[in-house]
Amino acid sequence: MQELVLNILKSTDGYVSGAEIGERLGVSRTAIWKAISKLKAEGYNIEAVNNKGYHLIDDSDIINSQEIKNILETKLIGKNVVFYPEVSSTNDVVKELGENDGIEGNVVVAEKQTNGRGRRGRKWESEKGSGLWFSILLRPDIDPRNAPMITLIAGISVCVASRRVTGLPVTIKWPNDVIIDNKKICGILTEMSSEIGNINYVVVGIGVNVNSESFPDDISDIATSLKIESNKNIKRKVLLNEILKEFENNYLDYIKDCDFSKFRDKYRKLCSTINQEVNVIGRETYPATVIDINENGELIVEKSDGSREVVFSGEVSIRKR
Question: Are residues 139 and 199 in contact, defined by beta-carbon separation less than 8 angstroms?
Answer without folding.
Answer: yes
